[in-house]
From TrEMBL:
UniProt-listed Enzyme Commission number(s): 2.4.1.250
Assembly with partners or alone: Homodimer.
Catalytic activity from the UniProt record: 1D-myo-inositol 3-phosphate + UDP-N-acetyl-alpha-D-glucosamine = 1D-myo-inositol 2-acetamido-2-deoxy-alpha-D-glucopyranoside 3-phosphate + UDP + H(+)
Protein name: D-inositol-3-phosphate glycosyltransferase
Broad EC category: transferase
Binding site for UDP-N-acetyl-alpha-D-glucosamine: 35-36, 43, 255, 260, 343, 351
Biological source species: Micromonospora haikouensis
Length: 454
């Protein structure tokens, strides 16, 4: 089974693991500068940014390569000391979908290789690629530069295709093949959870010695319960967001796409009306996020759904949130719902819990790690709105139970910090570099022995 890191600075034999000085992070299809919660920007963007910042604080420079998607972008942006985002021109600046990007991988790779070629030799010690498109670029770059490749898939096509929502497009065979190639070529695969590690081993035939689980984190300074009286803070957050100060609020936060299943929550609110009209009239469903992907992607489709179910007055839509508004959304809610058909991890679930709000989540993928069932929230083993309505009917009026779950949520979230993630990643990086150097040394020794024999 895949190894799980729990600490930093472990020793390899007598020597400490080497620490990279400089890392090339590859994020072809989405930039850490994009606003998460809409389009292709979500948890992966947050992950790359949070990790890069903390790596730089640990004296590891990070250069993030991403595709230029607008003519206004400077070639390089310094995001924070030691973290640079480099925009690579590959294909048209605007109007290219993620599905069209495989055709631009050669151009993107050329841009990455040219950048490195203009640098002194040995500029990067390691490449970390995110998502399979970047893994393809990393595969070639690692061979050219003679450095190891660490890859994080974030989502896997075979898993996603098993759990397609109505209206969602299956991932093409080309992606499955592309992922299999990256799994075979990467020196190390970082899985977000044990579930993902199992999928890599069982479904992608990954070498168990090269799979390591490193759980993502949450910014515990930003996402925390409001100080002072919780109820007063909830009311203040609701006022700030223009939400009703009476009754219950259940929030969905994320990209609006079929896989995230915000429709399940809306249908559950309608099913609750059948079951308990008085309770349903006290409920406001808040959907925060912007369009992404296919099918049910337009908020207009969700607005129409709510209207067709006769609950338009009970559903509020808010655009993607930045800055302090996101903690306010979590604090304003009695429950945060994550009904996804699949989730590699589910950062929203962690963020909500860190704010002391219990989470009602589908028991899929990383959510079974992100949420402790009956302790920090409730996992629902179904996407049937009737089951969701039943769970809502049990939880919403039970203030004492929600308060207990809220305390459990806050405690559970404390197990996940970005510092812990970065500590574990540094251990993976160090180990991978050490193994790579050992392989090189034994190859050189073998070559030497061969030339002596001649
Ligand atoms: N997010 C945000 N503003 C929004 C909606 C979402 O900043 O309006 C962020 C959210 O805080 C989280 C990320 O987007 O960090 C979504 O990550 P998650 O793992 O929940 O889902 P993914 O997008 O990776 O599928």
């Amino acid at each position: 089974m895949a190894e799980q890191h729990t600490g930093v600075g472990r020793q390899r034999g007598a020597r400490p693991w080497p620490r990279p000085r400089r890392i090339a992070t590859l994020s072809v299809h989405t930039s850490p500068l994009h606003q998460p919660g809409t389009g292709d920007a979500g948890g992966m963007n947050v992950y790359i940014l949070e990790v890069a910042r903390r790596l730089a604080e640990a004296d590891v420079e990070v250069e993030i390569f991403t595709r230029a998607t607008s003519g206004d972008l400077p070639p390089v942006v310094e995001m924070s000391p030691g973290v640079h985002v480099r925009h690579v021109t590959a294909g048209p600046l605007e109007g290219l979908t993620k599905e069209e990007l495989p055709g631009q991988l050669c151009a993107f790779t050329a841009g990455v290789l040219r950048t490195e070629a203009a640098r002194p030799p040995g500029h990067y010690d390691l490449i970390h690629s995110h998502y399979w498109l970047s893994g393809q670029v990393g595969w070639l770059a690692k061979e050219r530069w003679g450095v190891p490749l660490v890859h994080t898939a974030h989502t896997l096509a075979k898993v996603k295709n098993d759990r397609l929502a109505a209206g969602d497009r299956p991932e093409p065979k080309a992606r499955v093949i592309g992922e299999e190639q990256v799994v075979a070529e990467a020196d190390r695969l970082v899985a977000n959870t044990r579930v993902e590690a199992r999928d890599l081993l069982d479904r992608y035939d990954a070498d168990p010695a090269r799979v390591t689980v490193v759980e993502p984190g949450v910014d515990l300074d930003r996402f925390r319960p409001a100080p002072g009286d919780r109820h007063a803070a909830m009311l203040a957050a609701r006022r700030r967001l223009g939400l009703p100060t009476t009754g219950y609020v259940v929030a969905f936060v994320g990209r609006i796409q079929p896989l995230k299943a915000p429709d399940v929550l809306i249908r559950a609110a309608a099913a609750l009306r059948e079951r308990d009209p008085l309770l349903a009239d006290e409920l406001t469903v808040v959907i925060v996020g912007g369009p992404s992907g296919s099918g049910l992607d337009r908020p207009t489709a969700l607005i129409e759904l709510a209207a067709s179910l006769g609950i338009a007055d009970r559903v509020r839509f808010l655009p993607p949130c930045t800055g302090d508004d996101l903690p306010a959304v979590y604090r304003a809610a009695d429950l945060v719902a994550v009904p996804s058909h699949n989730e590699s991890f589910g950062l929203v679930a962690l963020e909500a819990q860190a704010c002391g709000t219990p989470v009602l989540a589908a028991a899929v993928g990383g959510l079974v790690t992100a949420v402790r069932d009956q302790v920090s929230g409730v996992l629902v083993d179904s996407h049937d709105p009737v089951d969701w309505a039943r769970t809502l009917a049990g939880l919403l009026p039970d203030r004492a139970r929600r308060a207990t779950l809220g305390r459990g949520a806050e405690q559970h979230a404390r197990n996940f910090s970005w510092d812990r993630t970065v500590g574990n990643l540094l251990a993976v990086y160090g180990e991978t570099i050490a193994e790579h150097r050992e392989r090189l040394a034994s190859r050189l020794a073998a070559d030497g022995a061969l030339s002596c024999a001649w």
